[in-house]
Design brief:
Blueprint lengths: L5 H10 L6 H6 L2 E4 L5 E6 L23 E6 L4 E7 L19 H34 L1 E6 L2 E7 L7 E3 L13 H16 L5 E4 L1 H9 L1 H9 L7 E7 L5 E7 L2 E6 L2 E4 L2 E4 L5 E5 L6 E5 L15 E7 L4 E8 L1 E5 L5 E5 L2
Parallel strand pairs: 1-15, 7-19, 8-11
Antiparallel strand pairs: 2-3, 4-17, 5-6, 8-14, 9-10, 10-11, 12-13, 14-19, 15-18, 16-17
């Protein structure tokens, strides 16, 4: 059996456990695959209209359907290429007993699974970074080798990306954080028509939040009820995200994850970032363009893996390809605030 054949690689990928992704799973749970290289997506802005009054003897008044915008984008490709050298099957793998217990063929087979798993993890983290950018800015900027920088603007209200300053920053004891959240949630609801009650805090923002006197006072007042906040948070489902409890009807999370780009470590949520939004109201979608590869049959899929051999020198290559775009159907269902 050729373990590098497209059929085998596809089966291995299908059996891999999907890596955890907090922002993607929280706000972008839907998936859409395009049959073309171009991705088409809609954005909608709901308005809180009311039905018109007329005399019972008059004809009904025409109410126009709510509009939406259809946009298109040719996404950049994710192309993750790995090399298998001839000496790999003869080297002890990480975790293998000193002296070796696997045959060269077994090591190579395991190396394939490990490499595919790592490629899938890297793709998921790329999508998570895109999700963070969408939630923070309402836009995505895509750039890469041979792909000039392009910004996809989903049309979010510019005021939904805030930076607090002066006496309004959350580290000031006079600032009522709970009033801020209520006001911002009200603004989101007015603009999008959905209730925003999910709060996601970067760890520095969480420390400021939990020490705010208005938050502390609320917890003292509501002690013994279901409206509590856990100073010792509980990890639920994702090791990078912690659910820390509820304050009123706000569900509060702390999220801390990083990624490496150009040998530099970066935070997925920048320091002192607060996200406020509606889980279901965003109607977020993970979109994928068709793979422009004959071996992939130009199919619409999240990713496609293939492998080939160079004979001189003897090197095998493994390539994972994807054409992703993270899209919020209701961009005004989220807000980002830098609180200090």
């Amino acid at each position: 059996m050729d373990i590098f054949s497209t059929h085998v690689l596809t089966k291995v990928v299908e059996n891999l456990k999907t890596p955890p992704s907090f922002l993607l799973d929280m706000f972008f749970s839907q998936e859409l695959r395009s049959d073309t290289e171009e991705i088409y997506f809609d954005t909608q802005e709901s308005k809180p209209r009311i039905s018109p009054f007329v005399s019972p003897l008059m004809p009904g008044k025409v109410v126009e359907h709510e509009g939406y915008q259809t946009k298109s984008f040719k996404p950049a490709y994710v192309k993750d290429k790995r090399r298998f050298t001839p000496d790999m099957p003869f080297k002890r793998m990480a975790g293998e007993r000193i002296g070796g217990e696997l045959t060269p063929a077994q090591r190579l087979e395991k190396a394939v699974a490990v490499t595919l798993s790592n490629q899938l993890d890297c793709l998921t983290r790329r999508e998570e970074v895109m999700a963070s950018e969408v939630l923070r800015t309402g836009k995505i900027t895509v750039a890469g080798d041979g792909y000039p920088s392009v910004t996809v603007d989903f049309g979010r209200d510019a005021s939904f990306t805030k930076v607090l300053a002066g006496e309004n920053t959350w580290d000031k004891e006079s600032v009522n954080i709970l009033d801020n959240l209520e006001d911002w949630a009200g603004t989101i609801q007015s603009k999008s028509g959905v209730v925003a009650n999910t709060v996601i805090l970067e760890p520095s923002a969480w420390k400021i939040f939990r020490n705010n006197p208005f938050v502390q006072k609320y917890l003292d007042y509501r002690r013994g009820t279901n409206n509590t906040l856990n100073i010792d948070p509980v990890i639920l489902g994702n090791e990078k995200a912690r659910f820390v409890g509820n304050i009123g009807d706000f569900e509060v999370w702390v999220y801390n994850d990083v990624y490496i780009e150009n040998d530099t470590e970066k935070k997925i949520l920048p320091e002192n970032t607060v996200l406020l939004g509606s889980r279901s109201g965003v109607e977020g979608v993970r979109c994928y363009g068709a793979i422009k590869d004959e071996q992939a049959a130009f199919q619409s899929t999240r990713y496609f893996s293939k492998s080939w051999l160079e004979n001189d020198p003897a090197v095998r290559w493994m390539l994972l390809q994807s054409a992703p775009l993270i899209v919020p159907y209701r961009p005004n269902a989220t807000m980002c605030v830098t609180i200090k």
